[in-house]
Write a structure and sequence with these properties.
Layout lengths: L1 H28 L3 H4 L14 E7 L1 H10 L1 H5 L3 E7 L5 H8 L4 E6 H11 L3 E9 L3 E4 L13 E5 L2 H13 L4 E2 L12 E3 L5 E5 L4 H4 L5 E4 L1 H6 L9 E2 L5 H5 L2 E6 L6 H10 L2 H11 L4 E2 L2
Parallel strand pairs: 1-2, 1-3, 6-9, 6-10
Antiparallel strand pairs: 3-12, 4-12, 4-13, 5-10, 5-11, 7-8
């Protein structure tokens, strides 16, 4: 009898030990909050916490517009650092590498072309404004007096060159192959009655080229940065033009970061009435907010 009771007690103790061991194993292997977080995903902002973001931009108008929005973002708990770039390549490579959280300087056709050529993984999370591209006079001051063989400078990146050629076509200076569309280059010119010499150069250099060419087709941000007034352009893209519809400037992020709340809030603030009013008053038509 004593042996039977002892055996029953021993079995109960062993069984309890087994169940206790299972419970400890579950507790020790349960993933922590940090382990559950998806690799590479930015932590969510909690109420009352300030989150910091870095946004790359061209000096004008993009960096100016961003700085105008800093107070509104700060009120939402977002501390935004604006980092200026003077070209169209570095802000995208910095975004791809993770040095930036977002950038604001380009239109979507350029971004898609950049992804294709450079193997980057960047996406748009919203349109903010468009900048009318303009034809500015250098040695020639009228589109009705363009001499034969005139030198015309245009951007050398694919999407902006096509945009410049479309504007020249809209003003009767040449005809391009319609099939080329927004990827047209000077090789797609079908008719060139004035035998224009199309000179391709880096977009940032165009304002400085004016004294050396007859005409230059200049992106809005570089025109603004060089102190050129859109009202002085010999011709520009209008609100209902292909340029206005195809080339609005965007907030770009690296693929996978589209839903980060602080970046969505950035787009919201940049599309607010306050920002639209700032753009309209400061740039007087050289920059147009997206409605």
């Amino acid at each position: 009898m004593k042996k039977r009771v002892f055996a029953l007690l021993l079995g109960s103790v062993l069984a309890a030990g087994v169940f206790a061991g299972c419970g400890n194993t579950t507790s020790e292997t349960a993933p922590t909050d940090d382990q559950q977080q998806t690799e590479g995903e930015a932590p969510s902002q909690t109420e009352g916490e300030t989150v910091s973001i870095k946004v790359g931009a061209s000096p004008a108008p993009h960096a100016e517009i961003l700085r105008q929005a800093q107070d509104a973002l700060a009120a939402e708990g977002i501390d935004m650092e604006v980092i200026e770039f003077s070209d169209y390549v570095q802000p995208n490579t910095a975004l791809e590498s993770g040095e930036l959280d977002a950038n604001y300087f380009q239109h979507e056709p350029y971004l898609l072309s950049f992804n294709e050529e450079q193997g980057t993984h960047l996406v748009s999370i919203g349109n903010v404004h468009y900048e009318p591209m303009g034809i500015y006079g250098g040695k020639t001051t009228s589109l009705t007096d363009v001499p034969d063989g005139a030198k015309i400078a245009v951007p050398n990146d694919t999407t902006n060159e096509a945009r410049a050629l479309l504007l020249l076509e809209a003003n009767g200076l040449l005809t391009i192959n319609a099939d080329a569309g927004i990827k047209a280059t000077k090789l797609d010119i079908l008719e060139n009655p004035h035998n224009l010499d199309i000179i391709e150069m880096e977009a940032a250099q165009l304002p400085r080229s004016l004294q050396d060419v007859d005409l230059a087709v200049i992106n809005g941000n570089y025109a603004v940065g060089a102190g050129l007034s859109v009202s002085n352009a010999l011709a520009k893209e209008e609100k209902d033009s292909l340029g206005a519809q195809t080339y609005p400037n965007i907030i770009a992020v690296k693929e996978g970061n589209e839903s980060r709340p602080e970046l969505q809030k950035l787009v919201e603030v940049l599309r607010s009435d306050e920002t639209k009013d700032f753009i309209a008053e400061k740039y007087q038509g050289a920059v147009e907010p997206i409605e």
